Amino acid sequence: MRKILSLCLALTLLAGFMLPVSAEKPVEIIFWHSMGGVNGEAIVKMVEDFNKENEGKIKVNVEYQGTYDDAINKVKAAGMSAMPADVMQIYDIGSRFMIDSGWALPVQEMIDAENYDISQVEPNIAAYYTIDGKLYSMPFNSSTPLLYYNKTAFKEAGLDPDTPPTNFDEIIEMAEKLTIKDADGKTVRWGFGMGNYGWFFEQWIGKMGLHYVDNDNGRSEEPATKVVFDENGGAAEIFKIWKKLFDEGIITYLGRGNTDAKAAFISGDIVITLESTAALKSLLTNVGDDFEIGTGFFPNIHPDDKGGVSIGGGSLWMLQTGDDARQKASWEFIKYMISPDVQAFWNAQTGYFPITVATHELDAFKENLEKFPQFGTAIRQLHSTAPEYAGSLLSVFPESRALVETYTERLINGEVTVDEAVQKLAAEVNSAIEIYNLTN
Amino acid sequence: MKRLTMSKKRKLNNIALVFMNLPIMLLILTPLLYTLSISIMPPSEIYKNTLIPSSISFDNYVRAFTNPAYSFSKYIQNSFVVSISVMLGQMLTCSLAAFSFSFLDFKGKNILFLLVLSTMMVPGEATIIANYLSISKWGWRNSYQALIVPYLTSAMGIFLLRQHYLAFPKELREASRIDGCSNLRFLNSIVFPLSKPALGALGAYVFLNTWNQYMWPLLVTDSDAYRTVQVGISMLYDIDAEALGLMMAGVIIVIVPSLSIFVFMQKQLINGLMAGAVKG
Which of A58, A193, A406, B234 is in Cβ range 3.0-4.6 Å of A329 for a Cys bridge? Predict the structure, then answer.
């Protein structure tokens, strides 16, 4: 009898030990991201903190998946069988694809389910990811383009170092004063220089208050069917500026993308340039004490343009895994990633916008702003933009950007006129859109 | 007296050769040395076209190894496991296939060989999605076999070894047959020792190719446990926040193990070459 009793006791004890363990098995979710270097280090730190806070409840496995392009290609391949991750970071121009694919679980559903107060997310940033009044993904790492200039060179040339140019008329005027030529008439320092970057083209269309594609700039239920920058004259205006800059010898060609322009700005070979807000930190580090960096609004094409800049960068998408517990855990994780403290840390580490309004009130953020006053320009620029200029959504943006860059090059080389460039560009992007719409 | 001048002449010749080779070597090594230099220079000097850093710091290396976002020692280990397995696998399968294509006679041999050769015309990128779907259907994603199995043989290797074996005198094979030597024994005790240089060249080529793979490892692995070095390097890069110093440190970390393998294997490669030259 005693034996049986003690056995029973031992068993209940054992069960007592075992039960809570099995009950506390954490929900594991997978988070795919595309941030390398410093940004990747920051993400890993944030995920570790989240896991510590939710120990025993949720465990996030953070996995790097290559560049934005690599990651979206990977999900395209894996998506044929099953969703490979729970939360995924996708770049801005992958948004339309994610919506069309039907793989995404709109975060709006989670917001509605628990009446989450979404007003604390910057409205101008949320607007980009809102389609038909539905927030599809949670903004996470957002940036806009910005004008950077060398204040020291401004002073030397007798220009006011606190007044950066705001449009191309002013840029041309100032660049002429800032350009230095040697005895042979060869330019040794250019007043202005920018990379041939398709992103800028999109921004200028928005700055003029125009649309890039039809169907409400690609934001209606039906995806875009053709570009409209040819009909509304936007592309021609931008190409005219490029041509003028070259014809008047204001700039030299700095290649596609931003890399060369950035290097030229850091080494002092160009005085004014255009770059992403997210590049501020690496510019400051690389320039060091050589000169003082100033920032201004991304320049207008015409002095009286009324539009605004749209954001770039990435957002967090929830994927349709069909597992309720994991989706709930994913939503908890996303809420953590956009909480004010975490966003202040993220902003300080990377230079992306804090996407939560409440972050602006935090001391950590204020300190950072004091340390890098140049970042204040980015925030003012964002706030001066109306949500209606959220920018376009287009499934074939990667191709479209490459085509814009190709035709800018051909225009500069004198192979095509402004009108021909616009026509051919529109025709080629249209056929890419048509193929995409037929196959998806 | 005459001999002395001969050896002196030779010495002079050697010195001249070394001096002629030095600038060429420097020219070839410059990018690598510049990479090394960027990885240890202060960040503010990177864009100033400085070749030699004013001060040296190994922060980038420490960061690549200690930051929890990267696990380079694991990536290097994985790359070794995968590259060596693929190398050994290809050396085995290719020599067996090449043996049958050169020494054995059977029906349809030429057609079969042409079929094998024709796979060389199909670029690897074309089959990557098909391979990926098979691998994920078998539940092999995130495993060593996903990285190794698809590369266990190659038409290039079969072709290379077959051409080498064809140069073998037929009499060797006939003589050994008369002595009652089986196919496998012939391969093992006669063909292998005589084809060390070809096998070594194939091994080196396959090792490097596998070491440098990027797309496939990125596609089939999700977690650090199976990631290889090239994916590791890409983790150091970011379009908005590029840190060239850190990236270059990653490149050096990844190059050193593969380079040292070659320094180590060089002797064996040359030995093999000599053996072939004398005996063949």
Answer: A58
CA dist A182 → A186, A187, A190, A264, A273 (Å): 6, 6, 12, 18, 22
- Asked whether the beta carbons of A117 and A123 are under 8 A apart, the reply is no
Answer yes or no: do A67 and B47 touch at CB < 8 A. Answer: no
CA angle at A13 for the pair A8 and A15, rounded to the nearest 5°? 95
Task: Say how far apart CA B151 and CA B145 lie, in whole Å.
Answer: 10
Q: Are residues A180 and A316 in the same domain?
A: no
B136 reaches A (C-beta below 8 A) = yes
- In the numeric block, the tokens 């690496």 are attached to A282
Contact residues, A window 90-109, toward B, CB-based 8 Å cutoff: none
Cβ within 8 Å, pair B241-A351: yes
- By the CB < 8 Å criterion, does B137 face chain A? yes
For chain B, say whether A401 makes contact (Cβ under 8 Å). Answer: no
The CATH class of B70-235 is mainly alpha
pTM (2 d.p.) = 0.84
Q: How far apart are the CA of A35 and the nearest CA of chain B, in angstroms?
A: 6
Are β-strands A187-192 and A180-181 bridged in parallel, bridged antiparallel, or unpaired?
Answer: antiparallel
Inter-chain residue contact B238 with A35, CB threshold 8 Å? yes
Q: Is some CB atom of chain B closer than 8 A to the CB atom of A288?
A: yes
Token pair 């001048």 is found at: B5
Mean residue pLDDT of chain B comes to: 87
Q: Flag whether A290 is in a domain.
A: yes
- Nearest residue of B to residue A284, measured between CA atoms: B44
Whether residues A206 and A267 share a domain: the answer is yes
- Helices B109-118 and B72-102 cross at an angle (nearest 10°) of 150
Nearest chain A CA: its distance from B222 CA (Å): 6
A225-234, A339-348, B194-203: least confidently modelled range: B194-203
CB A113 within 8 A of CB A324: no
Taking an 8 Å cut-off on Cβ atoms, the answer to whether A37 and B243 are in contact is: yes
Answer for the pair B175, B255: CB distance below 8 angstroms, yes or no.
no
CA distance B49 to A283: 16
B44 and A351: CB-CB below 8 Å? Answer: no
Average pLDDT (A208-235) is: 91
For residue A16, pLDDT over 80 is answered with: no
> B234-271: per-residue pLDDT in tens?
888 877 666 788 999 999 999 988 888 778 777 666 66
Q: How many helices (H) and strands (E) does chain A have?
A: 19, 13
Domain borders along chain B are 70-235
* Cβ-defined contact of B247 to A37 (cutoff 8 Å): yes
- Where in the sequence is the domain holding A431, given as residue range(s)? 145-309+396-439
